[in-house]
Prior knowledge:
The complex is a heterotrimer.
Chain A: H1 11-46, H2 48-55, H3 60-85, H4 89-119, H5 135-169, H6 176-202
Chain B: H1 17-21, H2 26-54, H3 65-101, H4 109-131, H5 145-149, H6 154-181, H7 194-226, H8 239-256, H9 259-273, H10 280-293, H11 309-337, H12 346-369, H13 371-377, H14 381-411, H15 417-443, H16 458-488, H17 535-540
Helix pairs in contact in B: 2-3, 2-4, 2-16, 3-4, 3-6, 3-7, 3-14, 4-6, 6-7, 7-8, 7-9, 7-10, 9-10, 9-11, 9-12, 9-14, 10-11, 11-12, 12-14, 12-15, 14-15, 15-16
Chain C: H1 2-23, H2 32-46, H3 54-80
Helix pairs in contact in C: 1-2
Amino acid sequence: MAETGIQYESPSHEAETAQAGMWLFLASEFLFFGGLFLVWTIYRVTLPDGFAAASRHTNIVIGAVNTVLLLVSGACLSAGLPAVQSGNGRMFRRILSGALVIALLFLALKGLEWHEDLNEHLFPAAHFALSERGAGLFFCFYFVATFLHGAHMVAGIVLLLWLLRRARSEPVASLRMPAESVTLYWAFVDLIWIVLFPLIYLSGRV
Amino acid sequence: MSLTLPARSYLTEDGRLRSWLLSTDHKRIGLLYLGTTTAFFFLGGAAAALVRLQLIEPDGAIVSPETYNRLFTMHGVIMVWFFLVPVVPAALGNFILPLMLGARDLAFPRLNLLSWYLFVFGGLLSLSALAAGGVDTGWTFYTPLTSDYAKGHIVLVTAGIFIAGFSTIATGVNFIITIHRLRAPGLTLYRLPLFVWSLYATSVIFVLATPVLAITLVLLAFETIFHVGVFDPNLGGDPLLFQHLFWFYSHPAVYIMILPGLGIVSEIIPVFSRRPIFGYKFVAWSSVAISVIGFLVWGHHMFVAGTSVYAAIVFSMLSYLVAVPSAIKVFNWLGTLHKGSIRFDAPMLYALGFIGLFTIGGLTGLFLAALASDVHLTQTYFVVAHFHYIMVGAMVSALFAGLHYWWPKITGRMYPEVWGRLAALLIFFGFNLTFFPQFILGFQGMPRRYATYPAHFQVLNVLSSAGATILAAAYLLPLGYFAWSLARGERAPANPWGALGLEWQVPSPPPVENFRETPTVTGSPYAYPPMEDGVQDAADG
Amino acid sequence: MWRAATTLLGLLSLFTAEVVIAVVFRMGLWALLPGIGMAGLVAARFMGLDRRENLPRIFALSGVFWLAILIGLTATDVLTRHMVIAH
């Protein structure tokens, strides 16, 4: 890590400030997805039948596997922080690589799922497979939400790669600040998926 | 006030263009913002000038109705997102905030620089779309008009706004964290300058409202590209949901465009009346109150859009609530002025003009918050006049107040005082002549956003356009004399106004690191003696 | 390590619960409750909210609170739009 900025009293002053900043940014990100949560809530209430019917056309197996994958990757990264603090570079690099593999697996499964959805004409344009009122709105929500979550995953993967590269060339103890920030971000992407999963795959099963 | 010039300052440290464009110094980034927002101001102003020119004749003097739609859209988009929202926080706030806190920089200097690049990139993206033919939807982009019927480069314009939005989120995060974490020792909550309180309140809106605009624009772009989307009535979607999402950001954004101005005026009034601010805690907390209550009132933009009557009643009552903290501020400024020894320097003239314009703009807002009168006045020039009084009249006056007040600190030069006062008076006069007739026009029923109008509205429209000419000239004046001051202005002392804030304790212009040693704060920034010594006793006699 | 492992265990139990609620008992909307519990658990443990000073907690709460404003006030319109009170 670069030396402490001139505006800080100490490295720990700087590190804690960076954490606070990351949290505030994530609160902002939460409201970004909040707009989608609003859309879901309103239509789930006003058009319950079509929305629920459409939800049953999603692939719950892929959704569930992906959820487990993300939970495990989040646990991995959070277990990586003690490794950073104790200076165990090898352990930390392994954990990062593991999280990376899981993330890529998630995206691959997501791609497969989208592919199937499109083959089944679940994109609500011409030849849309469902006729219930509200079903098209559900799939608009589905595609936008999964796309935006996927975009956040990609950003997370870039961050993981960057961290991994630094962990190869720098003593791992100096990576505390970026490691904590990336872990926070990753856990947040995790959290968003945890909210999206029941909204997309479970709520319609009534 | 000795005129010792600093040996080196942030201005002279490294003059190469590269060092400016890659600077992480909050002062330089503030100036980068000032330059770019000024450019956008004159672009948006040019569009406004064409609009006023068109409306001199009832049948439209110069352009077709289609072009007219594009003009006022361009005016709105540029002025809202690329001038009014960033100008005071990101330009003046960026420069002054760390100085006021006794800090050497913002918490995240590189993020600060990134935010400027995002702003410029977003601005150029939107601008290129506007130049390539523009959009004709108005700055509000309502669906399904925008997604299904409008012509033009909607995705490109909204992409630019989306990116600029993230630049304001970055600024907001930076400000909030800096205020929490980088205050000098002794700078407690109630010793903070009121400009800092108002920047904090503004940043809350940046951080918590802007992401909702971002997702709204994503959903809008999706709908425009694929012709299906979550607001699509053909799928059973609710176009009003777009308006809810849009105004959840855009109403608080109105407070982004006034809160920093309220802060500037709260700084200037005590300095130039030599009195401590009246009711410091009320002025401080009223900023927070405006920011929070501002999130609860957006429905008043939709009273005639077909929303629920019951929701409208709730939103109407909540809208009245905003008047309370706003009025607290005005009364407390008046309380500060009372029995003060007032100096009418240029910053003070702008600040006093602000109070007048803000009061008119605020009081006319009550007519629009009231359900019954809003049904008559909505979508008329009354609304146009109301929000221009706040966002242009008041906010641009506050911007100029702040710019004149801190100009000596920023540049190390004084500006020609006479010209400053003249411009202040001209802006006040020109603004009122432009927009007061629009209240009457709106009250008489002239709708907004039309390229033509019935002939009996012509007199007031010509008056308004005449006022706009004066206003344009008055806005150009500072550009001229500030440029002159940069080259020829008298050297400024560290504290030309005898003010107490921390920013006046460093040389003008400040050195790169602001404070050689971290200052310790022992009192309020407004602890002015109640009166000039002796004078007051005699007056009280 | 223990912290991460126990948290993961908790998350997987809640995950199983929500899937069972939706798929076996066909009570999809109730599946949201374990979901919210999982989100809380991730915030507390993986994001370390249980160990931090107050500032991040305030930020996290503001995020949730402002989302409630967005959904709550929009709902006042959408849920009462077609409501007519008989005279």
